Sequence to fold (215 residues):
Amino acid sequence: MLQFITNLKVYDNIMKEPAQFISNLAGVKSSKFQISFAVPAINLENLARLFPGKIKAQHVDLNPPGPYTGSIPMEALLTYGINGSLLNHSEKRIQSETITSIIKKAESLNFELVVCCENLKEIKLYSSAGAKTIAYEPPELIGGNISVSTAKPEIISEGVKICENVGASLLVGAGVKTRADVELSIKLGAQGILIASGITKASDPKSALNSLTLS
Ligand code: G3P
Fold:
């Protein structure tokens, strides 16, 4: 099934009532997309309890539970029933060696990472390092109104090929605002969408989610 991940970031309108925001959207059913939400670290445990199976982290660290102040250990997420996270988002970039180590750890714990990449070089690097899901997001389009599928169709197609060669899936994101943006992404071979402002800043987030998930 295709994936549709809404990244709530730490937008102020979300931080006031994150549970209410997701609750409004939780009833949206799509026959094409599995819908989930990447939520702020401080809300993870609570939201995973309220919306089981729908919550991902926005970031995860390499270290296990222990004396590591400020960390988000994979083991702790799994304890909360959260079995997936974004990694290396453009707004939370980390070192390449750390990403590779986290990919290996995730595989051993059956934890589903979505490794964010800014270009084909990174897509090649992390898909060949074993990442099962890559999200291509050109940073200059994030938060804008020009969609990745309109601006970078050839990179999506090439990224899809690179991923397919190693058995990985490519999601795409940045600037996705319309149903046409989503349809074009899927036509180009993407296995899903990573989105933020198209939902979080929509005047009616529920109808935006309905429309964008082709419901
Ligand atoms: O993680 C999704 C995000 O970076 C894309 O943002 O606002 O362009 O959908 P946006």
Notes: The chain has a mean pLDDT of 97. Residues 96-109 form the longest helix (14 residues).
